[in-house]
Amino acid sequence: MQYDVHNIRPLICLSCVTGSKAYGLDTPTSDDDFKGVYMARLEDVLSGCAPKVVQDSTHDRQYTELGEFLRQLELNNSGALELWACIGQRQQLYCAEWLTRFFIGRHPLSKVCAKTYVGNALAQLKRIHATHDKATMTPPTPATLADFARVLNRENTEPLNKWMETACLTWKDIAARPMGQNVWALYRQNNPVGLFGRDGTNVACPAINAASTFLACMQVDTMAYAAHCRTIAQYHEWQEKRNKTRLQTDKKLPADEGNYDTKHMMHVLRLLHTAREIATEGRIHVQRTYDNALLRDIRAGRIPFSEALQLVQCEIADMKSLFEKSTLPDTPQLGDWKRDLAQLRILRHNESEHH
Fold first, then answer.
1. Neighbouring residues of 152: CB distance < 8 A, sequence distance ≥ 6
2. What is the pLDDT of residues 184-205, one digit of tens each?
């Protein structure tokens, strides 16, 4: 069987609205996102052919195989828990009756959520910082290989460019001969291509004439130059591919307080508020209510970066204490789900064979 979002429809056992529309945080441009669970055919599970996740090309529809979904719940994966919390709620579009019965007496929420939710938030926060740094940094100025070269004198070293200026030399007045790793001997000699070749990215080494005069030794930090080139390339790639709409913060904010990924920051704080509710209430509120206005303000770019960051950091600081005081079990209480799932697969397979 070819598994895709169209031909697994008979296998879907849970389908829910997810994303901003599930949280009540959608905007006029928000996409329709759907996630759910499907049960692969028994023969495909036994042969290892059943994919863990089936999704469309835009990732707007995503379905997790039931066994993988339960494994994620056992790990207290935040995405899996959020989907589980939609069962029986307004976000649910469809849930098979047998799946509802399967979850009776199984309680995935536990103190492990402290680790998974904070870990998820920190990972996203790292990306937010990286985006903010790039958005507010002074664009790097491209340098040439010559900028990473130094002339070795007896007592000290000096930048090649400065040494050449003092000696009244041009690039075509010098030829180089390799002496060792990243070290060249420089000679006064006519060199039509120039010391660093026509493109300026490599040391040119023509044959040295017997009459050429030795000038000095040169050392080039090729690793630093390569790293510089990568930085330049990564910056320009980021500029081309970045989602500019996510950086549209209030124009009244100074540059260092704006220009951050507001959508990700909103979801980080939402994630941490959900973790707080898990610790204190033992449940997940998918739709945001009391914090809806705050989260929308962050998403709209009305909150300065430092203020949003402080809100997140305060939640993270409280998390350990909240879960230590919580009445939640130390680990998820899912029973022997692997055995029960195996029996369920056989039962469902037999039922399908009879129809």
1. 183, 216, 217, 218, 219
2. 999 999 999 999 988 888 898 8
